[in-house]
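Running co-folding for fe (ii) ion.
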Amino acid sequence: MYFKQFLHDEFGCSSYFIASRFSRDAAVIDPQWEVQPYLDLAAERGYTIRAVIDTHLHADHISGNRRLAAATGATLYLHEAAEVHFPFQPLRDGEVVRVGQIELHVVHTPGHRPEAISLLVVNPLRSPEPSMVLSGDTLFVGDVGRPDFGGPEGARQQYASIQRLLGLADWVEVFPAHFEGSCGKGMCGRPSSTIGFERRYNPILQLSREQFEQAASEPPARPLNMTAILAMNQGVADYRWVATTPLVEAVPEITVEAAPAWLQEHHPFILDVREPAEYRAGHLPGAVLLPQADLAVRLAEVPRERKVLVVCAAGARSRRAAGFLLGCGFPQVTSLAGGTNGWRAAGLPLATGTLAEG
Ligand SMILES: [Fe+2]
């Protein structure tokens, strides 16, 4: 068999190319929007992409699944529970997708999303048992996928799905859909692991079911532009411009110490990109709430003719949101380094309540 993991640094995602060296058939799992690398690899090595599979509907990046299937004639697979407005081949638990002699066994692992699947990779020429699991956003290295996108039963289902994966043999290698990013809280950063190592040393897997559900009730912030990305991945709206908008890296920043005088001088539009609960607990006076998850769909609410100061909790979200705004052509965007936490620590005044929601 041929196996390649693609690491995508911008969103901390992994995608996979699996092929049979005998039949020359290939499958791509969780392809990114930019599909040329998969096409180039197939052409270079003489493989034909027959199957395109997304482990779930992604909330943090726009999938290339439909583009890659259209470019290759491959079958597009999703779990049957996927609610999308385009045709696909539905997968059920226990089903097998064949790539030449290689078998991809579908395990329905709901929790992160209702339609989430994991794929057990079996190469019968080597062994009747799986050697790898493509664990999607169910099991990460050192963490598990956030269950708050999975509906009211998300946390309970995620716990059960993970227990199912932990029933695999110790040697089974774990290849998740993320090594960093906003779909988990404490990923280790390594791109792969084994079931045995995770069972023993993944801190979330040491929790009782009650502790697990408690930890799940404090999810991280929703990803940048999630509303637009999910609508695009469901086929209900065309937000491909989000996928092609660069996140500008060179973002002007201002320190908390320098901010008060700068605010006095420039009177910027203060854009708070945190979640509503964070905003209510304390924000810069005059800041307007627009959570980063909604930024692309509410872009018209951000003025282009004024200076914009983007603020979050500690400065990471605001930096990326500012990079997106710069990529969209907003000319005067600055990020507050240190964020609202730094502002508070400096003893500067905060406002509370919901008055300034944008
Ligand atoms: Fe995800």
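Result summary
The pocket of fe (ii) ion is lined by residues 56, 58-59, 112, 137, 183 (CB under 6 Å).
The first strand starts at residue 2 and ends at 8.
Job closed.
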